[in-house]
């Protein structure tokens, strides 16, 4: 109840930079106000609070011994423009409830509990994402050795350098937020599902097996442009008609997996030349985005898709150029943590845990480069996210808090 109310409170001015909608970009006034409010709730939950060199907010609840390594809960404090109240924020707020519960019972573990609120998961201010997460994971220098991100600008022309300076920080200095491996025992992220699976199955929460492997292509189809009134149907090499056939065939291939391994494929963008009413389209460029829980499943689907593009193009005498654009490996959750979270979820819900793939990226996929990681998904209404209509049931959030609490105890038991 309190967790949802807190997220709701943070959905408005002064925690948003816009009056009529929620927009909380990294290092904006709403972001700073949010850090203040969340800091207060962390302290009330028995935590000490600090900000690191990447402007992340970190709360710490000590373990049985001082300086013990930490089990780190995390999620992001920023939001997209016209976003929802629970994306990111709920992961931080729910973790505070978990710690508050332990604090009330004065229950402590052989490890400390920490909660990190990351700054720029969404990349809603600058054209880059998860810099602050990469700083903590210690991979910021590896990904961008010269801090070239420093000169990127927001829509008002403010550079990242300048935005950091207002908080007394520097781009190169961000790397000092790095945590050492020996300092952390696990990373746990709770997040709204941003998908419809849990709701469709009537479940409050689910366990994430990993973040999807992703592949993107750009496809260029080249036919023959011609007069729409005089070019005979039998002689046409219509690039858009070919693209239409390909799009529907891609949908059919993806549907044939029936959700297996979280396989999805999307044509999200298409441009048509010359794009006028009285000309048969000569050229089309479109994108393909394919994702699945494993690279093997994704690549099998992609192979079928590429083969069908070749076939349809050949039959229609269209030239097809297929350009690979991105190939991101999937990020599996740690098997041991997964097993513990699965046990916690079945215990709390009284039914076997639903295991699902995250089609979206999260802070967890960066943190996995440093420390074993696992994620918990919380049902959200109709799977809607990045939208003011985002909604959760407070009963579901309570179940999530219980499962995370149970998980921490199980984790302590196996480490004993
Ligand atoms: Zn998010």
Automatic annotation (TrEMBL):
Similarity comment: Belongs to the peptidase M20 family.
Quaternary assembly: Homodimer.
Alphabetical list of Gene3D superfamilies matching this protein: 3.30.70.360, Zn peptidases
SUPFAM superfamilies named in the record: Bacterial exopeptidase dimerisation domain, Zn-dependent exopeptidases
All copies of domain Peptidase M20 dimerisation, residue ranges: 217-315
InterPro entries hit by this protein: Amidase_Cbmase, Bact_exopeptidase_dim_dom, Peptidase_M20, Peptidase_M20_dimer
Cofactor: Mn(2+)
Keywords: Hydrolase, Manganese, Metal-binding
Protein name: Allantoate amidohydrolase
Organism (species): Acetobacter fallax
């Amino acid at each position: 109840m309190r967790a949802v109310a807190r997220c709701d409170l943070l959905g408005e001015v002064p925690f948003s930079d816009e009056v009529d909608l929620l927009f909380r970009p990294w290092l904006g006034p709403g972001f700073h106000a949010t850090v203040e409010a969340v800091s207060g709730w962390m302290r009330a939950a028995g935590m000490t609070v600090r900000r690191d060199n990447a402007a992340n907010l970190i709360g710490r609840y000590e373990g049985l011994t001082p300086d013990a390594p930490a089990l780190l809960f995390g999620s992001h404090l920023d939001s997209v423009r016209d976003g929802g109240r629970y994306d990111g924020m709920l992961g931080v707020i729910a973790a505070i409830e978990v710690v508050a519960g332990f604090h009330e019972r004065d229950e402590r573990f052989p490890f400390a509990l920490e909660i990190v609120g990351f700054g720029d998961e969404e990349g809603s201010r600058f054209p880059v994402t998860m810099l602050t997460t990469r700083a903590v994971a210690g991979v910021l220098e590896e990904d961008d050795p010269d801090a070239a991100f420093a000169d990127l600008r927001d829509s008002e022309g403010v550079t990242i350098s300048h935005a950091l300076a207002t908080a007394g920080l520097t781009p190169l200095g961000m790397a000092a937020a790095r945590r050492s491996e020996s300092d952390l025992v696990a990373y746990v992220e709770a997040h709204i599902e941003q998908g419809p699976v849990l709701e469709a199955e009537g479940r409050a929460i689910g366990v994430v097996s990993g973040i999807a492997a992703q592949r993107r292509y750009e496809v260029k189809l080249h036919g023959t442009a011609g007069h729409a009134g005089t070019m005979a149907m039998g002689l046409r090499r219509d690039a858009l008609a070919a693209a239409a056939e390909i799009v529907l065939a891609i949908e059919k291939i993806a549907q044939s997996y029936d959700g297996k391994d979280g396989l999805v494929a999307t044509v999200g963008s298409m441009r048509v030349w010359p794009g006028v009413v009285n000309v048969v389209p000569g050229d089309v460029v479109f994108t393909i985005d394919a994702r699945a829980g494993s690279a093997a499943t994704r690549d099998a689907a992609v192979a079928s898709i590429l083969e069908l593009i070749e076939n349809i193009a050949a039959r229609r005498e269209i030239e097809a150029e297929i350009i690979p654009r991105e190939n991101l490996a999937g990020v599996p959750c740690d098997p041991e943590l997964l097993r513990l979270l699965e046990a916690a979820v079945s215990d709390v819900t009284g039914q076997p845990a639903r295991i699902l793939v995250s089609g979206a990226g999260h802070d967890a996929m960066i943190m996995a480069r440093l420390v074993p990681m696992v994620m918990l998904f919380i049902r959200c209404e109709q799977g809607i996210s990045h939208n003011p209509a985002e909604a959760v049931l407070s009963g579901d959030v309570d179940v999530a808090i219980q499962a995370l609490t149970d998980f921490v105890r199980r984790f302590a038991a196996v480490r004993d």
